[in-house]
Amino acid sequence: MLHLIKYRFFSILREKTTMFWGFVFPLILCTLFYVTFGDIDSTLECINTAAVVRNDTTEAKAFEAFLKVVEDSGEDLFAVEWMEEKEAKEKLKDGKISGIFYVDTEPELFVAGSGIEESVLQAVLESYMGRCQVVQDVLKEKPEELLGMAGQADADEIYSEISDKISSQAMQEEFVEETSLGGKKTDGMIQYFFSLIGMTCMFGCFLGFDSVMTLQANISPVGARRCVGAVSKFKLLIIDFLLICIVNYIETLVLFAYMTKVLKLDMGNDWGKNLLIAFLGCLVGVALGILVGSIGKWKEGTKIAVMLSVSLGSSFLSGLMISGIKGLIEERCPIINRINPASLISDAFYSVAIYQDGSRYIRDVVTMAVLAVIFLAGSFLMVRRVRYDSI
Amino acid sequence: MIRIENLVKRYGDLVALDHLNLEVYEGEVFGLLGPNGCGKTTAISCLLALLKFDKGTIRIFGEEMRPDSYGIKRKIGIVPQDVAVFPELSVRENIEYFCGLYVADKIQRKKCVEEAIAFTGLEGYQKMRPHQLSGGLLRRLNIACGIAHKPKLIIMDEPTVAVDPQSRNHILEGIQRLNREGATIIYTSHYMEEVEQICTRISILDHGRSIATGTKEELKRMIKMGERITVEGIQVTEGQIAAVRELPHVFQTEYDNQRLVICCSAAKKNLMRVLHYLEEEEIVFGKIFSEMPTLNDVFLEITGKELRD
Questions:
Q1: Is the whole model's pTM more than 0.95, yes or no?
Q2: What is the CATH number of domain B224-292?
């Protein structure tokens, strides 16, 4: 029996296409993700701007205060230089600054281009304007509450004070801090990497598919030869199943190790739970491939199309391509997240690493185990069929 | 050794095997001959318990053949029509893997593999992958994978399809050698020359039925034609052709493009009589030769169509 295992292991490992998509491709994608998202903060340099004071109304003073706070915030997001309009325009023309803020009753921004830096400056102004609008709305609709709250009689004074607070809080501290129940800070980017692990597990379906194709007499000549051998088909299927699970598991662990040890991503420290998630994920992926491969009536091309759709669709819905998709599904149709294997895998990792939510983790792994059992039972029933209708 | 009785296999409305009856005896090379689509491969698949069939019984080594008849399967080797090997494994690894489906003992298996490699002449190609082999070598590998475990019964389903003449001769000689070493062989083909060359008994299949079974001599005796005389480079009149047809034992003549074919029943001196007539009539010709009937003639006479239609 050992030699059967040995040679099947060789044949699986030497299948270049499957190994590329299951082993090399996730590493490449991971690296690309890391280059794109992983170090995005450090790619922004300090943006030089000019501020030109046009008048000294309360609103203008509030914006002036905001800019000074931003400049002194220590975030090194941008530097503000106070100067006359003529000088500012010359510097903008020479490319020494990226934009000019006009301190006025209605603050304005003047830029000479449409790059990232200009977009950041615009976002800063819009953020300020948005927060001012909130205060103005409250003052118009429920001035008594603000007056009562502040204990002040002069609305302008109150407005100025609140604007100052908005300005200072805007950069020095967040109004709302995003945090998980487990106390760890959430990270939108890490979700991509969890989904990538989900995709790698799901790509195990191609290994399962290839394997079952070489075990069915009505599909391949090798299948016919193996079926007429003196070793039961059930034993051959078990050998193949275990081998491809191991190969897919190794692929996933290598990817996981690459993320944590090479890219230094924080994927959580509970190795036991992480290993179990990866194992169950691989089990589901491989079992799905065997199930699709063993559906007798479909042509090989149809089966491959189904596999691609399922594995990539599952990964897409787990947030591999668009980060917000999983949240959207959770709002509109949560059942998809409950049964989508890639979502379950990424969610389980997220539960362990970020939420530290035991019940959610257990729900995910139990669902994965149930899915694996269903897929396996279905595929074993179909593959162990004794005689074929046609070959 | 094998007894197939009233085997019926239908694919919807198409009857692939129509009450097929066959008996294969130990030690023979049994040929299943018939045109493409006559049911040869279907019969083999049923024999190996791969295909469901609608009616009939199959017994091998005195036992009913079932998918879990591993005792029987251990004694059978299969060389399928399509090359059935793992492309990722080398020549030697493929033979070892498939031999391992039958032989568990490592030492015995190694010996079997060595012998199969030597038998098929693949010594110099052991480390090569299948895609590096020529068509003929691939067929040899296909055979090696099927015979390495030294089966008592070897089923070969058109093993020489798309093979060059040199490799074909190598394969046919190998089959005869296996038979001499004690293996019973079932050989399917639509190449009548091959079947005539190596098979000791032949069954001709058509539309899923065995239309004639016997040794090649027995089969040829079943038909009217015993000798075919061909005269090339000849010009004859209608009257002369009619006169030839009146010669003793001649039952059919065909004349086309200066080529006269004379079909005679089995008798002595048919050629002498034709030559004598041509001499008497002073008819000039280029070449004359006589042939014994082929299996194609048998097939043609029984079914009314060419074997290679």
A1: no
A2: 3.30.70.100
